[in-house]
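Listing S7. Sequence submitted for prediction.
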Amino acid sequence: LRENAAVFKVNDIKFVVDQLKNLNINSNILNGKLDLSQIVIIGHSLGGNAAFEFCSSDNRCKAAINFDGALWSEVGRMGLKKPGMIIAGEHPEFSMPCITMVNSHAYLNDEWCEAERSLVISRWKKILETGQDSYFIQIKGAKHANFADVQFVILLSNSPFKTVIGSISPKHMWRITCDYILAFLNKYIHNISLNFPSVLSKKYQKIVLETI
């Protein structure tokens, strides 16, 4: 089901890119003004999976960025041969005993827990092994919803979102992700490397890891 959802989102991306192509040809306002050789797809969660999947299968995509998205589709099995960056949350559940995760109702049983987290980690590693300039960034204190605007919202004490928002300051999280995105785009769109990612590794060395 999750692979199907990712593929559905890929079709959405393809539709948008097709429409941009049409606008670049037929629009009175945008005719010839869109540089479609510089397309980078960015997505969160299943959208991150879709970003990588589209980029692996469509030559119009130059690079992709995935915010904390497990790779359920073909790109996770085959890898990505274009520049790609994964920015992930801390995911302490990957190192916890599966029995602890089952008792907290995160998984139904040990087998599911072991299989799923093995799949997530191995497919992220596949991107690093096969990619042309691939990067993995993990932000300490971040959880899955820290990549969304909901982290800036004052939540009710019983809000389910509280379980997927980490301890990192939302403003700090925003600054880190923006810095990495801009540096990645500068390198692969504008050909300005500025020692990416090492310059950011030093700036954020206490809070950012670059290995799985």
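Caption to Listing S7: primary sequence and predicted structure tokens for the chain studied. Residues 2-209 form a domain with the Rossmann fold fold (CATH 3.40.50.1820). The radius of gyration is 18 Å.
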